[in-house]
## 1
Amino acid sequence: MEDSWATFGHDLHLDLTGPGGLRAALLRALREAVRSGRLAPGTRLPSSRSLAADLGIARNTVADAYAELVAEGWLSARQGSGTRVAWVHLPDGARGSAKPRATPAARRAPDPAERAGRPRFDLTPGTPDVSAFPRTAWLAAARRALTAAPSEAFGYGTSRGRPELRTVLADYLARARGVRADPERIVVCAGFMQGLALLSRALDPGRLAVEAYGLDFHRAVITRAGRRTVPLPVDERGARTEELTALDEVRAALLTPAHQFPTGVPLHPDRRAAAVGWARATGGFILEDDYDGEFRYDRQPVGALQGLDPEHVVYLGTASKSLAPALRLAWMVLPDRLVDPVLALKSTGEWQSGALDQLTLAEFLSTGAYDRHLRGMRLRYRRRRDQLVAALADRAPQVRASGIAAGLHAVLELPPGTEQSVLRTARRQGLALEGLHRFHDPTAPPATRDALVVAYGTPPDHSFAGALDALLRALPPGE
C-alpha cells in the first residue's frame, strides 16, 4: 500500500504562511509553537519523513529545518530518542517573549488554598473505600471480555444495555437478592440518578412520595422531571408506608427497604406488605433503591421487596457501592408495563454506560469474582463498624450507634441540641462529617433528632484509625 499522511506517527499542526518560501515558513512556525508554549519542553516531534508527508513538502526541507533549530537550541536530537523540544533556555532574542508552559507535574499540583481547606479525614457518606477497587481482578476480567467481545459490541449499542450483562444480572439478582428478573426487563443505566430521572418521567402523572430522611439530590432529580414530591415519615421501623393511602395524587414511592438511608433501619415486614398492598390497590409503583443491600453483617440480608410483586415494584441496583462510582453502572428491573416507556425515553439521547465496562462486569459476575470481592469487603466494613462501636463504648459511652449492622455508614445518636456544635468541632479536627439534619426533607415536619451519619466505609484502610480518633475527639464529653 502506498504511504500517505494518514499512516504516519505523531500529528503536529503547523501553518506555513508568510514570505521566504516553505523552509522559512516552517522555521517560523516551529519557533512560534515553542515560543508560545504550545509545544512544551520535552515534546517529541514527528520524524522528518512523517512531517514532510503531513505538510506535503520535501523531506529534505524538514530535515534542514530541524537541523537548524537544533543548532539554535530550540530543539534537541539524540539517536533513538528522536527530535524533541529542548529543555534548555530559549535563545537570547526569544527570551523576552517566551511564555513558559507548566510541566505536567506542575499542572497537577493542587492549589495551596485548596490544599489548606481540604479535610484530613473524610467520614461523609456516598462512596465506598475506592482504594479497595479490585484492579487486578477487574483488569483480568476486562481482558477476557475484550477478547471474547463480538465486533458489534464496539458500536453505539442499545438503550437496554449489553445482553451479556443483563443475562448475568438476572441470574445474580435472583440468587443473591431474591429479585424475579427477566433479562428483557432489565435496563442498564449510567448510574442510579439516571434511572430515577427516567422513571420520574415515564410514570403516569402524579406526585412521588419520598422518605422524609434521604438525599436532597434525589428529590431534585424528581423535581426537575416535572414531578412534585411529598415526604413520607420515617421512624425506627422504616418508612411509614401505611400512610401512603392518605396521600392524594401519589402514584409512586421511592423507598430504601433493605437499609434506610440515612437512618440505617430496615423496613418492617408489616410496612413492606403495606407498601406492596398500596401499589396493588392503586396501580402505583414502589421504586426500590437497593443501594447497599449486599452489605449485612449480623445475618443474611433481607431479600429485595421486588420479589413480593415484580409488577408493582421497580428494582434499582448499582455498582457504585459494591465496586466504584466511577464505573457509572446501575440497573433497573422493570414491571412489564414500564419497559417500553422507559426505553422510549432512554433512546432519545440519554447517556449510555460504556459497552466495554458492561462486558467486563458481566465477566466479573459470571466468574464469581464479584462474589469474592463482596465477601472481602463485607469483612473489611464489618471490622470497621465493630471498631467504631467498641471505641464509642470505651471513650464516648454517652453516644450510641443506632440502626442495623449493615451498609457503609452508622448513625450516632447525640444528646439533644449538640449536633451542630459537634460538626463545628469536627471541622476543627480536620474531619469531614455530616449530621442527620443534612438529610431531612425541609418540606416535612421539623426534625428534632440530633445525630451524626458516620461513613466508616469511605476512608482507605490506612487513614481509618486517624479518622476514628478525630471523630471521638469531636464528640461531646460524657457526664
## 2
Amino acid sequence: MSDLSAFPNGLDALEARLKQDLAWLELPAKSWIPPREVNGQRVVDVVIIGGGMAGLVASGMLKRLGVANHVVLDKAPTGREGPWVTFARMRTLRSPKQLTGPAMGLPALTFRAYYEALHGREAWVALDRSPRETWMDYLVWYRRVLDLPVRNGVTVDAILPRADGMLDIVCRQAGRTETMIARHLVLATGRDGLGGPYVPPIADDIERKFWAHTADEIDFAALRGKRVGVVGAGASAMDNAATALEAGAGRLDLFVRRTDLPRINKFTGIGSQGVVHGFAGLPDDWKWRFLNYAMREQTPPPRPSVLRVSAFPQAHLHLESPIIGLEQDGDHVVVTTPKGRYPVDFLIFGTGFKIELTNRPELVAVSPYIRLWQDRFPVPAKMRNGELEASPDLGDAFEFLETEPGACPALAKIHCFNFPATLSHGKLTGDIPAISEGADRLARGIVRALFVADRERHFADLQAFDTPELLGDEWADDETETLSELSSERTPT
C-alpha cells in the first residue's frame, strides 16, 4: 500500500471538508443507549465480525445513528482485511470507478474524493478502474478518518446464546481467550461467511499439494515453468490463470463446462434504485425467479481479465470440457474431459463458494435452528437451485429466523450482513454498488430493536426529565388582574 503521509496537503483538505460536513449534519448522533453491565463486565451493544468493506460501513452507519458502544473484530492484520490484497488477483476492481460504495451519501467520503485529493482531477479522468491495492488504501483511510472501533488479530471461536437473551462472543487474540457479552451481533464475513470455498468431490482423492482453490494462498512463483490447469470460467478463475501465466507458467489449460464463455452481465443491465430498494418487497416466487435466472445465465468475467489470459500463447481454452476424471500420476495429475486427457502439475479450482453452516465452527450452537429458504419456499421442480435453497431466510434487519419459533430466540440478535443474504434482501451486502443502502437498512433495524428493548428505561427517562423550557415569568395570567381593572377597561369615555 502507498504511504498516505506522502500526500498530506490533499488529504488534509479533504478531511477538513469531511469534518465540516459531519458537523453541519450533526453527525455522528449523540450516544443514546443506556449502558449495561453483567457481573461488572460492560456489555457491548453491537459486535461486528469482519473488518472488510461491509463491516466498516456497518460500523460507520451504527456510529452515525448514535450506537457508539460497538466494536469490529477482524482476524487479519490492519490493512489486510477482506480479499483486496490477499486472494483477490485481478489488477483492478470490476466495479466502475464512480460508484459511491461505502460513502454513506457523503461526497467527501467517496473513493473519487479520496483519489482526486491524492492524485488530482486529471489523474481521475485518466483512471479506468481502481487498482485493488488502491481500493485497500482507501478503506484504510476510510476507517481512520471515521475513527471506527476496529480490533485486528481477533478470531471469533464461538457465538453462544445466553439465558438473559444476550450473546457470549468467545474470542481469541495472541493466544489469549476472552468472552465478550453482546446484545447484537453482525456477521460481515463476506462471500464465504456462511460456508466456505467449494471444491468438487472429484478432488477428494488427490493429494492437497497438487491443487488449490482460488481463495487459498498460492505460491505462484513455484509454478514457473509448470503445467497449470484452471477449472471455471468466472472472474476469479481468469484472474488466477493470468497470475499463473504472469509468474511464468509453461502451459495453462482452462477447463469450462459451458459451450461458450458467458458474455452478458444480466444484473448490471437492470441496476437501479428500484432494484436496490424494491427487491426485498418482491413475493417469494419473484425473488427466486430473478436470482435463479441470473445465476443460471452466470456473470461473465471482465473483458480485461480474459484478454490478460489470452495474450499468452501458452494459454489454452477448453469449452464443453467438464472434468469427468482426475487421477494422480506420480509427480502430477491427469485431468480427463470429454475432449481428452491433460497432464498438469498443479490445478486451481475457480469453482466459487458454498453455503454450508456446518463449515462454520463459530455457529455450531445456533446453526441447527437457522431457517433456510428451503424451509420457507416450495421450490418449483424446474427451478431447483442448491445455493438458493441453502440461503438463510432473513428478517427485515438481516436477522436470522428460527425454523421452529421459540427454539432459539437469540437468532433475532444475529444479523447476516454477508453474501448469502442476497435472496432475502438483494445485492446489498457484499458488492460495492449498494453497500451503503444495505448498511443503512441493517443499522436502522438494530437501532429499532435496541430502543424497543430498552423502552422501560427510555420511558423512565422521559418521566424524570425536568429541565424547564419556560421559567414562569414570560407572560402573566389575565385572571390575576382585578375585576375593577377589567371594569374600568370596559367603561366608555
## 3
Amino acid sequence: MRLAGTAAAALFLAACAAGPDYKPPALELPVRWQLEEPWREAVPGDALDKGPWWQRFGDSQLDGLQQQALRNSPNLTLASARLAQARAMLSAADAARSPQLGLGARASRLRISANRPLTNYATQNFATVQNDFALSLNASYELDLAGRVQRSVEGATASAAQLAADLENTRLLLTTDLASAYFNLRATDTELDVLSRSIALQRRALELVTARHDLGAVSGLDVAQQQALLDSTLAQVDLLKKQRAQYEHALATLSGTPAPTFALAPDLRPIVPPAIPLGVPSEALERRPDVASAERAMAAANAQIGVATAAFYPSVMLVPMVGVDSRMVERLFDAPSLLWSVGVSATQVLFDGGRLRANVDFAQGGYDATVANYRRVVLTAMQEAEDGISGLAALDRAVTQSLAAVDSARRVLDMATSRYEGGASTYLDVISAQQSLLSAERQAAQLQGQRLQTSVFLVKALGGDWCGVASRSAAAEADARTGCPAPLRRVAGTR
C-alpha cells in the first residue's frame, strides 16, 4: 500500500510540469487582403507542398539554374547540418526519459599493508596479497517530479521544428533571390537590346543629317546634336553591361558556381508572370517558413522557463545496482559472490543567493523577446503581402500604359522625321523624338522587369507556390481557377 501510494504521488508530481504551458499569443489579423480586380481569393494551407513555383514562369533556363542551386548551395548545406544537430539534441534530451544502464568490470591483484591503521586494538593486522574480480550492472533513473525532463524535450522538439522551418526559409530565399537576379539580368538584356536598336536608328539618322550637311541643306549644328545623342547612348550601354555582369556573378554564387567560370548568353524571349491568387492573411501566414520558425522559437523559449523553474524542486534519482565480487574467478558467479544495492538520492537547493530566480527571469526575458520577434515577423509578412498585391496591380496598369507610350513615341518620331525632311521643323524636334522613344522603350523594359521582380517578391511573401492550397471540398475548383499546371497539382490533405 505504501509503495503504491508513493508511486501514485510520483506520477502525480511528474504530470505537473513546472513552468507555464505553451500557448501561442493571439494576433489581431484582418479578415482579408485589400484586393483589387482582377485578384481572386484562394485557400492556402501550410501542410501542402509548396512545389517548384519558378516553373510557372515557363523559362527552362531558370528551371535549370534553380535545380543547380538546390544541389550546390552551401547555405542549404549549412541549414541542413544545423537541423541534423538539432535532431540529435532532441534524441539526447528524449533519452533522459529512459533509465541509464551501465556495465562495470574490475580485475585486480592487491597487497594490504600490515602497518595500516588498526580497526580493533585486540586484533593484529597482517599483510595479505589477494585477487579481486567483480562484475556489476548499474542503473540510474531520474524521477521527473517537476517536469524538467519533459520541458527539456519540449524545448528540443520546438528547436528542431524551428530549424526545419529555417531550412525551408533558406530554400525559399535561395530560390527567390536567384529568380530575382535572373529577372534583373533578363531585364538588362532587354534594355541593352533597346539601346542597340536605338543606336542603329541614331546612326542612320547621323548618316542622313551628315549627308544633308554635305549638300549644304542643314548646318553643322544638326550633325553635332545627333552625334552628341549617339555618344550619350553608347555610354549608357557600358553602364548596363556593368550591371549585367554583376547580376551574372550573383547568379553564379547562388547556383554554387565560381563566378569566373559562369556565363549566360543574352535572351530576349518575353516572360509573362503568372497570375497569383490570394487568400486571407491568417492562412497565408501559416505557409511562411519564417513565421513558423518564429512561432517555434516561442515554444522553445517557453519550455526553457519550465526547465529553469524545475530547479526549485528536489532532484530525485533512483540508483539500483547488482553484481558479483570474488577473490577467485572460478567462484565469481557463486551465490555467496552476489552483491546488490538499492538507493534513492535526492538534492534540494536551500540557498543560492538568488541564482535560480535569476535563471527563471532570464528565461522569461528570452520568451518575451521571442514573442516580440514573432509579432514583428507577422506584421512584416502582412506588409510584404500587401506591398506585393498593390505593387503588382499598379505595375500591371503601368506596363500597359508604357507600351501605349512606346507606340505614341514611335508615331511622334515618324512625324518629326517627316516634318524635318520636308523642311517644316528643325532637327531639334527629331532629336527630342528620338530621346522620347528611347526613354519610353527603356521604361517599358524596366517596368516589365519590375513586374517580374514583384511577382517573385509576392511568391516569397506567400511562402512559395500556391497550387493545391484549397480545402478538401473545393480542391478541384480552386486548381482549375488558379491555373495550376498538371505537374504541380496536389490533392488536398496529401503531401
